[in-house]
Amino acid sequence: MIRYALACDHDHAFEAWFGSSSDYDDQAARGLVECPFCASRAISKQVMAPAVAGTKKSSAPDATAKMQTMMMEAAREVRAHVEQNFDYVGDAFAREARDIHEGRSEKREIYGEATPAEVKKLRDDGVPCAPLPSLPPDPSKVN
Q: What phi, psi does 6 have (nearest 5°)?
């Protein structure tokens, strides 16, 4: 695995992992690498210092565990906010999102289920949508 520091044409910086350098090149060439902030596909690699393995014990595992805990909590908060404030439309999400976008249904925030093909069609047609984070395990129930 290789981690790249990336940036979009709107100067949003982010990191992404790839199986190899050629995996990044292939995905970028096919327009599959996109900015998580603005969905731009005009992405470039940024200068990044290589990770060098040493004999000195590092605090990286602690930092990684803290970051994972923080990310899981953020995912829980996002999902809870959506579930409390958005209308659940079930498997009618694609149809309802398109109807709202085209003015055939009242404008409101919704969530529900859609197939990958439906999501691709929505994005291709300019209908804004984003995946809702999966609910991470409850930390009180993890051993």
A: -125, 160
**% of the chain at pLDDT higher than 70:** 85
Let me know if residue 82 belongs to a domain. yes
Q: What are phi and psi of 12, to 5 degrees?
A: -85, 125
Give the SS3 label for residue 58: coil
* Alpha helices by DSSP H, 16-115: 21-29, 60-85, 93-101
21 and 75 assigned to the same domain:
no
pLDDT at 137 over 70: no
Please provide the average confidence, as pLDDT, over all residues in the chain: 85
Find tokens 């100067």 and name the residue.
11
Q: Which is nearest to 99 in space by CA: 91, 90, 108?
A: 108
pLDDT tens per residue across span 83-127: 999 999 999 999 999 999 999 999 999 999 999 899 999 999 999
Contact indicator for 1, 51 with CB cutoff of 8 Å: no
Task: Return the structure tokens found at 8.
Answer: 């979009």
User: Quick check: helix, strand or coil at residue 48?
Assistant: coil
Q: 129 and 78: one domain?
A: yes
Residue 90 within a domain: yes
Tokens of 142: 């993890």
The mean per-residue pLDDT over the stretch 53-70 comes to 70
